[in-house]
Structure formats: structure tokens, C-alpha cells
Design a protein that fits this description.
- With about 350 residues, the chain is an alpha/beta fold.
- The protein has 12 helices and 12 strands.
- Helix 3 links the parallel strand 3 and strand 4.
- Strands 3, 4, 5, 6, 7, 8, 9, 10, 11 and 12 form a 10-stranded mixed beta sheet that branches. A two-stranded antiparallel sheet has the order 1-2.
- The termini are far apart.
- Helix 1 crosses helix 2 and helix 5 packs across helix 12.
- The radius of gyration is 28 Å and the shape is globular.
- The protein has 3 domains: about 55 residues, no CATH class; about 160 residues, Bordetella uptake gene, domain 1 (D-Maltodextrin-Binding Protein, domain 2), CATH 3.40.190; about 100 residues, Periplasmic binding protein-like II (D-Maltodextrin-Binding Protein, domain 2).
Length: about 350
Amino acid sequence: MPAAHREEITNPVGGCRFAVSRPFLPFATTITARTNRAYGGPTLKHFFLASILAGALALPAYAADYTIIAPANPGGGWDQTARSLQTVMQQEGISGNVQVQNVPGAGGTIGLAQFASQQKGNPNALLVGGYVMVGAILTNNSPVTLKDVTPIARLTGEYEAIVVPAASEIKTMADLVEALKKDPGAVSWGGGSAGGTDHIAVGLIAKAAGVDPTKINYIAYSGGGEALAAILGSQVTAGISGYGEFESQVKAGTLRLIAVSSAERLPDIDAPTLKESGLDVVVENWRMVAAAPGLTDEQKAAVSADIEKLAKSAGWQEVLKTKGWQDTYLAGAAFDEQLAKDVSATEAVLKDIGLVK
């Protein structure tokens, strides 16, 4: 039997010290002795240890603990997407612990740059982005682009909604266009980042209405919460963003929905399209998820598998239904090809409406 060793122990009450002798037993020897005594011998001991092992193996084996960067303030579309990913990944057992971090500014390009520089080679880091970020990269002449991260998949699409405060004298899209034609600068638009989907949509609306897009008065907000507060407070003439960001206020009657940017009317949304209002404009915002740069092929495949599992899960389908988001899941080489086309098309639109030279 191994020799005993001595330990000095401090009395937690009186502070005095005294010595005790304890046999030096390895952990395995100790647990064996204890289980033999408690459970009547080796046979029951083996059964007991096997039960512990089986219980451990029965625990869910999570692929990774992810951190998701939402490159905007809380409340907007990217933040909602990141937190929806967080909820579903945990509910579906894709990851046991998912954290969301907000890194706002410059249409997502600050978060993008930080993500690219700080997370290189980290397979557990994800970034939410999309059409808005593509535009912001171009308008901000960002040195960091989506080529500096690892795009994984396009997840959702969402049409633009144009709203005014409930007390506004503007009742229809025709009223708004009339005011815009009369004095473009007097009509202020509140939306997301400069050069993003909201800004592009306003430029296209102005162009379709015969108004110089460079004369629009667009006020950019870095988060959906800030933009919503400005619209509700009548600090701007009209607001534009994804319908999901306005839905609760529209249903509560504090905002009036006057048009949506879809090609056809959307189910369960009582509003005409821009086309119905005489404006040949269709705009769909899309959102994606990217992984860190510098991943191995195996790491990228593992992240892609997790995102595919999420996209096909019942939990995610329920989120899409609740948020009013379109399921535009696209991954792999097909997404890489589509992303390149979207970047090129966005640059052309931004040049056309005077936001990029």
C-alpha cells in the first residue's frame, strides 16, 4: 500500500494549523475501493462504472460553441438574424452555447474588419452580413471586403417596406412621391447604413419617379432601433427597412405601411407594391453568414454542415415564418458565384444613383 503523506490544514474558524496523515491513493484506486465498499464487490462496481460511462455518452455531442458577430446595433435585421441563429442552433442541438456580440458602425464594415483581423483560423466564429454590407463596402471604399472572410451561405431574403408615422398627412405612396417631386430635399428618409439596401431602394424610387437620386435626403442609422425611434418620433418624413422591423408597430397602428418592394403582393401584408404605385422598382434584401478567414477545408466543411442543418431545421423554418423572411438558402460554389454577381450588380446600381463614382 502506498505510503501515507502529511498535510497541513488551516482551521477556517480559528485560523490554527494542524497536521493529518492521509494515504496517497490515485483517483482510480480510491474510486475502486469506495465502489467496492458501497456496492458489494467487483461485479456491481463494474456495473456502476459502466452506468456512469453510458450516461456521459448519452449527453449531446455539440459540434462547437459559436460566437456570432452582428455588425450593427441591437434591434436591426442583422441583430435579429444573429439572435435567431443563436436560439435555433441551441434548440436544435447544433451548438450547446452560442454568444452574440454587436460591433456596429459604417454599414457593418467595422465589424467585418475586426472579424477578419481577430478571428483568423477560428472555426467557432461567425459573422452575419448581406446586401447592406456589400453596398457599404463600396460606398465606404472599405479596404476589407467579403473576400477577406469565408462566405458560407445565404440564409434569408426580405423585401423593403415604406412606412410613415400614423399621424402623417401622407396616406399613400402617391402622396410621398408627389412630395418628393415637389422638393426632394424636404422629404427625409430614415433607414439603415449609407449605401445599404434601404438607401439603394430610396435611390431607385427617386429615379423611377423622375427625381435626381443625388438630391434625396437620406438619413442613415447604424441600428434598426435608432431608425425606428426617429420614424416614430416624426423626425423623418418616411422610414424604409425590412418589413419585420416595422411589423409590430404597423399592427399596433403607430406606423402606416404604404408600400412594399416585392414584385407581387405579399401574403398577410396589407400593402400595395411599388409597382402598383406606378414605380418600376423591386428590391429584396438578403442576409448571409460567413466564417473566419484561414480555415482548413475540414473546418469550413464542418461549419457549412452546421449551417445547412440549421437552415433545414423545423426551428429555423418557424423563425422564417414568424419574421416574414423568405427562405433563400444557397451554399457552396453556387453561393460564391451568386455573391460575385451581386457585388457587381450592386456596384452598377450605386454608380447609377450617384452613391459610388
